[in-house]
């Protein structure tokens, strides 16, 4: 087999200014133009826009217009405690970002906490303009709070001074590439105060049991991706019994976009082709 890299334009790095509650937020983003369907990727807790950089390299998405951005407190986006942001606020920022940057119907994709952000976005603003939805091991039930729940028993000071560093150390010792890359990203690109703040609503919403029902009730093409290390997730049978396309990504843990990006973006490319223009 001959492997031929994607022949597509390189992504452009820019900054979008989005206003929420009268305060401006500068959100650095990557944009790769393309004649095919538009896809917006939303990162999760401890992540950043670079989580999806390999989407820009994937032959499966070579024709697509691709966008992804930093949430406040991650990557190059500043976190200001006085802004009083939570995950619901991130959903508003995501909606406003899409309204400003995407001029046509698009496919929405959220990973981990990004799955929660995108579900809250659709809860608040509906699904007009969203052609399809990709959930990459996003939060649906309490069992999905593998990292965010660790913040709950601690004060902000305890978390930022000790618990955050312990989580990074644990991920660095993992045998999985995705865990180790996320650990370095957390050390370099994540404000521990933002991580703590976003964890609170993430756990609350995941424990409610509402997210799974909202996901199943969406009236649009849906794809759920998960790493084979997590095939024990209790709700997979319900997803398969519904109208969700479920794909297990081999040789992967939670961070499938790093553990096996070729397979993950291949599955997303197939989904995008089926949804079409």
Helix content: 25-40%
- CATH homologous superfamily designation: Alpha/Beta hydrolase fold, catalytic domain
How many structural domains in the coordinates?
Answer: 1
Number of strands: 8
- CATH C-level class: Alpha Beta
How would a textbook summarize the main sheet?
Answer: 8 strands, mixed
CATH topology: Rossmann fold
Computed Rg: 17 Å
> What's the helix count?
9
**Major sheet: arrangement of strands:** 1-2-4-3-5-6-7-8
Mean pLDDT: 95
Low-confidence stretches: none
- Give the termini separation: 30 Å
What does this structure look like?
With 277 residues, this protein is of the alpha/beta class. It has nine helices and eight strands. Helix 1 crosses helix 2 and helix 3 runs antiparallel to helix 4 (177-189). The chain starts with 11 loop residues before the first strand and ends with a helix.
Question: What secondary-structure arrangement, pairings included, does this model have?
Answer:
Blueprint: E1 12-20, E2 23-32, E3 38-42, E4 65-69, H1 87-101, E5 106-111, H2 113-125, E6 130-136, H3 156-172, H4 177-189, H5 192-208, H6 210-217, E7 222-227, H7 236-241, E8 244-249, H8 256-259, H9 261-275
Parallel strand pairs: 3-4, 3-5, 5-6, 6-7, 7-8
Antiparallel strand pairs: 1-2, 2-4
């Amino acid at each position: 087999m001959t492997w031929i890299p994607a022949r597509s334009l390189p992504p452009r790095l820019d900054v979008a200014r989005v206003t929420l509650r009268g305060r401006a937020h500068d959100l650095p983003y990557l944009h790769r133009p393309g004649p095919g369907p538009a896809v917006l990727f939303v990162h999760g807790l401890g992540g950043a826009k670079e989580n999806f950089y390999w989407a820009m390299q994937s032959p499966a998405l070579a024709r697509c217009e691709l966008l992804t951005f930093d949430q406040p407190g991650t990557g190059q986006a500043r976190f200001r405690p006085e802004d009083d942001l939570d995950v619901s606020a991130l959903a508003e920022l995501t909606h406003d970002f899409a309204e400003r940057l995407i001029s046509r119907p698009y496919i929405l994709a959220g990973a981990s906490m990004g799955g929660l952000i995108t579900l809250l976005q659709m809860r608040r603003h509906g699904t007009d303009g969203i052609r399809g939805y990709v959930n990459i091991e996003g939060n649906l039930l309490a069992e999905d709070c593998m990292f965010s729940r660790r913040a709950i028993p601690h004060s902000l000071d305890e978390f930022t001074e000790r618990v955050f560093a312990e989580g990074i150390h644990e991920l660095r010792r993992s045998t999985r590439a995705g865990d180790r890359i996320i650990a370095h990203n957390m050390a370099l690109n994540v404000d521990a105060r933002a991580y703590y703040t976003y964890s609170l609503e993430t756990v609350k919403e995941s424990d409610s049991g509402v997210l799974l029902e909202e996901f199943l009730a969406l009236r649009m093409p849906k794809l759920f991706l998960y790493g084979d290390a997590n095939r024990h997730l209790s709700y997979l049978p319900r997803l398969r019994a519904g109208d969700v396309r479920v794909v297990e990504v081999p040789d992967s843990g939670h961070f499938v976009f790093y553990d096996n990006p070729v397979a993950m973006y291949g599955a997303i490319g197939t989904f995008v082709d089926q949804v079409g223009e």
